[in-house]
Design brief:
Length: about 325
């Protein structure tokens, strides 16, 4: 796999895996709290969560290409010796990713098979909270290992939840009507505000801290086209959906929520590009193109997998 294809795969895999992971979290939350929102969104959330084993398999395309993706893998001297020895090394990276993805896949199987009690759901959310504080740092933040952010894991978790809710809005299941649509709108609005708040406050804290590694992180994103990229992400995927969700007519309309979900999806993809691509310098255009192709391929494979799973399930039901 060439360097551009490997980098494109990482970006596409991160974007593709957001909605399945977020769907699992929403299903676990609903198992504990109940509510009509979960019942209305289940026809979308359950198939999305069923894709987590596919996301886990996608990790096999990341682990062998570490030197092409991460500076610490190509040159251990890029980080402090103790960090390289104890944390940022190929073995630890693969182990943390495997534990997280396999754990999420097992939780998805428990939920979809009806074996997830409230206790299991609570423990599953605790497991997710632990792993989501680690793997986003590995997969994204360690692309620029001298930059640190204590809020990055929480922000990435909100991105996953937002992706799942946007998918539910775009798919608009049959249970989503004028009664349940406001529930989805409220969830979208709250999660969107969380994403915008953490993104803004992370920037403000880094700016006030005035530390060279943090400044360098944002200075790399001043080069063209990244200011336009993040501006479009904030406007199309943040401000416009936020304003639309304040309108009662939009909140009650599944059709209008489709537009909101689509805008949020566009903003999320642009946001992931802004997070990942600048780490690879000016030559990241090839990775962006490859990411688009990989993402289309992953979506096609996911649709085929869901269709085959549906046929297999119907056959078992008739047997």
């Amino acid at each position: 796999m060439t360097e551009a294809l490997a980098r494109g795969w990482l970006l596409a895999w991160i974007a593709f895996g957001a909605a399945p992971a977020g769907s699992l979290v929403l299903l676990l939350i609903h198992r504990i709290t109940g509510g009509r929102w979960g019942e209305a969104l289940a026809p979308v959330l359950r198939p999305a969560a069923a894709l987590l084993p596919l996301v886990a398999l996608g990790f096999l395309g990341v682990a062998p290409a570490l030197p092409a993706l991460y500076p610490w893998a190509a040159d251990p001297g890029a980080v402090k010796p103790d960090v390289a020895a104890l944390y940022l090394n190929a073995g630890s990276f693969a182990a943390r990713g495997a534990v997280a993805l396999l754990g999420w896949s097992v939780l998805a199987w428990l939920v979809l098979s009806g074996r997830c009690s409230r206790l299991v759901a609570g423990l599953g959310l605790a497991f997710y909270g632990l792993t989501i504080s680690l793997v986003p740092v590995d997969w994204i933040l360690s692309l620029e290992p001298r930059f640190t952010s204590s809020a990055f894991g929480a922000g990435f978790a909100l991105h996953q939840l937002l992706a799942a809710l946007a998918l539910a809005a775009v798919a608009s299941p049959r249970g989503l009507d004028r009664t349940t649509a406001p529930d989805l709108a409220n969830l979208l609005l709250a999660t969107l505000l969380g994403v915008l708040y953490i993104g803004l406050m992370s920037y403000v804290v880094a700016w006030y801290g005035d530390l060279p590694p943090k400044a360098a992180y944002y200075l790399r994103r001043e080069a063209v086209p990244y200011p336009a990229l993040v501006g479009a992400a904030i406007a199309a995927g943040g401000i416009v959906p936020f304003l639309l969700l304040l309108l009662g007519a939009v909140r009650r309309s599944p059709g209008a929520l489709r537009l909101v979900g689509l805008l949020v999806f566009v903003g999320l993809v642009l946001r992931f590009c802004w997070l990942v691509l600048p780490a690879w310098g000016p030559g990241a255009g090839g990775a962006a193109v490859a990411a688009g192709l990989w993402l289309v391929a992953l979506v096609v494979v996911a649709l085929l997998a869901l269709r085959l799973a549906g046929r297999f399930g119907r056959r078992l039901g008739h047997a």
